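Re: weekly structure request thread

Next one in the queue (158 aa):
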Amino acid sequence: MKIFKIIIASILICNISNIKAQTISIDEIRREYSKAMENQALCERWYARFQNDNSTNNKIKAYKGGICMAMARFAPIPKKMAYISQGKKLVEEAVSNAKEDVEIRFIRYGLQVNLPPILAYNKNKIEDRNFINSHIDKLPNESMKQGVKKYMEETKNK
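Done, posted below.
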């Protein structure tokens, strides 16, 4: 019986280690990011997943920052600014590390366009908009290019 308990404990520890070691797929977060911005349960699920992620990938970091900021939408008032600050730090770090990455700049642009002006996180909106429009062909696939073009058109007056 004691050996059985040791084996079960070992299996559980290995499974917990594997869960924490799972990396976040860039394709997976790309597919769900815009939905998570509007869906509290999905946003909370992504936020929880990102808590165990220590990725140095700048795209992942930018998406993580975006999810943090989206959490503010669903959080009680006292916690909103903490989520905004945490997200802003991650996004700005990702942009700083990869200034020429169109996708990262698009994430920041989307946040700056949609956050209330009172938060004063909009100083790069025009710069990012111009950068994205002039480098849209560097996006990884046609579907993403078309989605970004559509979004840029929808937000051109914001």
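The radius of gyration is 18 Å. Residues 1-21 have pLDDT under 50 and may be disordered.
Next request, please.
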